[in-house]
Specification:
The complex is a heterodimer.
Chain A lengths: L11 H11 L25 H15 L10 H4 L3 H13 L1
Helix pairs in contact in A: 1-2
Chain B lengths: L6 E3 L9 E5 L6 E4 H14 L5 E4 L4 H14 L2 E4 L5 H8 L5 E5 L10 E3 H4 L17 E3 L3 E8 L5 E7 H15 L5 E5 L6 H14 L2 E3 L6 H10 L3 E6 L1 H9 L9 E4 L6 H10 L3 E8 L3 E6 L8 E2 L4 E5 L2 E5 L7 E2 L2 E5 L5 E6 L3 E4 L2 E4 H9 L6 E5 L12 E5 L5 H8 L11 E4 L13 H7 L14
Parallel strand pairs in B: 2-12, 4-5, 4-6, 5-9, 6-7, 11-12, 11-13, 13-14, 14-15, 26-27
Antiparallel strand pairs in B: 1-8, 2-3, 9-10, 15-16, 16-17, 18-19, 19-20, 21-22, 23-24, 25-26
Classes of the chains: A mainly alpha, B alpha/beta.
Chain lengths: 93, 462
């Protein structure tokens, strides 16, 4: 999923920081996110309200609107690297 | 009690070609008409294996309603679990043996007979055999239509049987209150298995004949897309959690006739904000799984609730019970209400949340409202630590309040509540553990009081 051709905007580190601050993960002792680790359910343990908040933060920071009408929505939200790749592809489009 | 026993149509608001469900997505928008719905429901009622009970796990409202209607036609009682977890279904099946599950998608780990509804009935184009004109199915008013389950205090799902005539009666009362008409479209973010979702997104469409979007939009962009596609006057049926996300999303919104909110208290500030951002009216429903919806208010403008027109409150000792033409018997309310002379009422708090400290009574809900009114407190709740039966010593408080410390919270509460109710213990967290419906479960709150959750952020007691 990750675009490796050129330094794309935003970087995976920037999206990681956005997630940590938007979901206030630092206060829960989470300071880094595995690029390919599961975010929801048994992984990082995010819930549906986190998904709403994350979508909101992404739209505010990058102008990318997250919608369930994208058939790959489950995959997009599966991991940090997938989310990053999706934001990059939307901004390039 | 004025219970009807005469048969009622499956679709009281029937008008053959009128749309009942808006199905499909942006690319493949389709409509299921009233006629198509009763035809498909009739076909499905014959295609399902026989069983006494049916656990309806369908996510999509169209499939959900078909399975529910098929059950009504053939006399199979639907069971609506509080979630889609296999473990919950298994637990329910321990008390309801002759049971099958019906779903419109994969269900992880289910060990009960499972029918994939889409394999039983194909989506057919209008004019197909499955859409042949069939007579309107009639359902006796005293038919046990479904059993709703709530998480009981014992941890086991608690059953609440619901009857067809009562469901139609309650939907009709809601329709009179909100002046629903057949040319409206409902867009709902709540699941149909939930009592509020069932009433507003299934029973109201069937009873009034208005249409409803089959999908359950989740993100603000989804909600906006579903609203934009919906014909007619748009009614958004949602919860405070989704409403808050919509308000913050910075999107342009299509015209919305009204927003209806339930499942958790809607803060007045959010109601006002939503009315401004969405250019609409935000109305709030009061009810419970036991009673169904029974009252409403225009939250931005009034604090008092108005009963639905056939609901009558009956003081019953320290509590209040309600009767209505859509209730089999008087239903005692778990909440503490204060009846006003003009027939309205104020909601003071949940009975379970009434506490006594040093001989003084207070409602936890009311204390929490005071807490949330403090500048800098984003979210917060009072809780009784330990077992609820035990004598309350002092309260605890869990708050989301970045930058605030214990002293700031206490200063904020000073003058607002009796010092007896000041929290002995304060735990600061980044988020309260609200579930999908925005509710807080006591067990989740108690977990936050465990020492592991202390953030060293001023939560000492003495």
């Amino acid at each position: 999923m990750q675009d490796t051709a050129a330094p794309a905007d935003p970087t995976i580190e920037q999206v990681e920081q956005l997630m940590i601050s938007a979901l206030r993960l630092e206060e829960a002792g989470i300071t880094e996110i595995q690029p390919d680790g599961a975010l929801f359910g048994s992984g990082l343990g995010l819930d549906s309200i986190d998904a709403l908040e994350l979508a909101l933060a992404i739209s505010k920071a990058y102008g990318v609107t997250i919608s369930s009408e994208d058939p790959n929505i489950q995959e997009i939200f599966a991991s940090l690297e997938n989310i990053t790749a999706y934001i990059q592809s939307q901004r390039a489009a | 009690m004025s219970k009807q026993s005469s048969p009622l149509p499956l679709l009281p608001g029937f008008e053959a070609e009128h749309a009942l469900f808006e199905t499909g997505s942006r690319a493949t928008q389709q409509i299921a008409s009233h006629q198509e719905f009763i035809s498909k429901a009739t076909v499905l009622s014959r295609a399902l294996p026989s069983s006494q009970y049916l656990i309806n796990l369908c996510d999509d409202r169209y499939w959900f309603a078909l399975a529910f209607a098929a059950g009504l036609i053939r006399g199979t009682v639907s069971l609506f679990p509080p979630n889609r977890l296999a473990a919950t279904c298994h637990e329910i099946a321990r008390d309801y043996h002759d049971v099958m599950c019906v779903s419109d998608g994969h269900v992880d780990g289910i060990e009960l007979p499972l029918v994939q509804i889409k394999d039983r009935i194909q989506i057919k184009t209008p004019g197909d055999a499955a859409n042949a004109v069939v007579p309107m199915p009639l359902i006796a008013a005293d038919t046990e239509a479904f059993i709703a389950f709530t998480s009981g205090s014992t941890g086991r799902p608690r059953p609440h049987p619901k009857y067809w005539g009562d469901l139609v009666g309650c939907a009709a009362a809601a329709a009179r209150r909100f002046r629903f008409t057949a040319d409206s479209t409902i867009i709902a973010t709540v699941p149909p298995q939930h009592m509020y979702g069932l009433e507003l997104s299934i029973m109201v469409p069937l009873t009034v004949g208005l249409s409803v979007t089959a999908a359950r939009p989740f993100f603000p962009a989804d909600i906006r897309a579903a609203l934009s596609r919906a014909p007619g006057a748009r009614i958004l049926v949602t919860t405070p959690v989704h409403l808050s996300a919509c308000v913050e999303a910075g999107l342009e919104w299509p015209a919305i006739d009204m927003v209806i909110s339930a499942t958790a208290p809607l803060p007045k500030t959010l109601a006002k904000r939503a009315e401004s951002v969405l250019s609409t009216r935000v109305l709030e429903i009061y009810g419970s799984t036991e009673s169904g919806s029974i009252a409403s208010r225009h939250t931005a403008r009034e604090t008092a609730w108005r009963w639905y027109d056939t609901v009558v409150p009956r003081p019953d000792g320290t509590r209040i019970a309600v009767t209505a033409d859509f209730l089999h018997e008087p239903v005692p309310l778990a909440d503490v209400l204060q009846l006003e002379e003009d027939g309205r009422f104020q909601l003071l708090g949940r009975e379970a949340e009434m506490i006594k400290v040093g001989g003084k009574r207070a409602s936890l809900a009311d204390l929490s409202l005071k807490l949330n009114a403090i500048d800098g407190v984003r979210d917060g709740v009072f809780i009784v630590p330990g077992e609820p039966q035990q004598r309350v010593e002092r309260l605890a408080l869990i708050a989301v309040a970045p930058g605030m410390n214990r002293q700031a919270i206490i200063t904020g509460l000073a003058g607002q509540i009796d010092p007896l109710f000041y929290p002995r213990r304060i735990v600061f967290v980044d988020r309260l553990p609200r579930n999908e419906a925005g509710k807080l479960l006591r067990e989740d709150l108690l977990r936050l009081l465990e020492p592991a959750h202390d953030r060293g952020n001023e939560d000492d007691a003495d």
